[in-house]
Design brief:
With about 200 residues, this protein is mainly alpha-helical. About 45% of the residues lie in helices and about 10% in strands. The chain has a domain at about 10-40 and about 85-190. The strands form two sheets. A three-stranded antiparallel sheet has the order 1-2-3. A three-stranded antiparallel sheet has the order 4-5-6. Helix 2 packs across helix 8. The radius of gyration is 18 Å and the shape is globular.
């Protein structure tokens, strides 16, 4: 029996194909240490391979048992494949922000838009609302201010973190708990994103 898989990256790659990321935004993403995730692009999912790996996974040792030896995913793998920082400050999500009003204020400050109250479910934001905002934005001009560049970069960084690196089973929602860590654009690259992704 082959396992059914599900993508959690929503329409991120379709969005990137339709609206290429501005070079100044890519520069910010690179400084933040997440350019490797963008560079890796959308990978194909081989359901048969995933099924075979699941059958060979031993929970007790957290390793795959193959005929020749044992293997596991390591921090070095994440560092090489995605270029993620593995040293640095721990990534601690903030779930203490309880009110939708507070999340709306953070979205306005960091992303440049205010989702409606219906677009939230506790500490989650609807993927559809985020996608609609991203699709409604005109492409950045070369005359864009650094604040505009940073807001756009945070949109992409937020999507890469919660939609790909730390996707969960929430389906059509993006987890907001990591959002406050994106407030200081200069500090984003100092976190150990590889450790939390592993």
């Amino acid at each position: 029996m082959i396992l059914n898989t599900r993508r959690e990256d929503g329409n991120f790659w379709k969005l990137v194909e339709k609206y290429h990321i501005h070079p100044r935004v890519l520069k910010v993403i690179r400084i933040c240490g997440l350019y490797g995730v963008y560079r890796a692009n959308r990978f194909a999912i081989d359901r048969s391979l995933i099924t075979a790996l699941v059958e060979r996974w031993h929970l007790e040792t957290h390793t795959f048992h193959f005929r020749t030896s044992k293997a596991t995913v390591t921090l070095q793998d994440l560092e090489v494949l995605y270029g993620l920082p593995v040293n640095g400050d721990p990534v601690l999500g903030n779930e203490t922000i309880k009110t939708i009003g507070n999340w709306q204020n953070i979205c306005q400050r960091l992303l440049g838009f205010i989702p409606s109250r219906e677009d939230f479910k506790a500490n989650f934001l609807k993927v559809a609302a985020f996608n609609a905002y991203m699709l409604s934005q005109p492409e950045l001009l070369n005359t864009a201010t650094q604040d505009m560049i940073n807001q756009k970069a945070i949109c992409y960084i937020f999507w890469m973190i919660v939609g790909m690196l730390m996707a969960d089973t929430s389906g059509g929602y993006l987890k907001l708990m990591y959002f406050p860590m994106l407030e200081d654009i200069d500090k984003i690259g100092s976190y150990s994103w590889g450790s939390v992704t592993l």
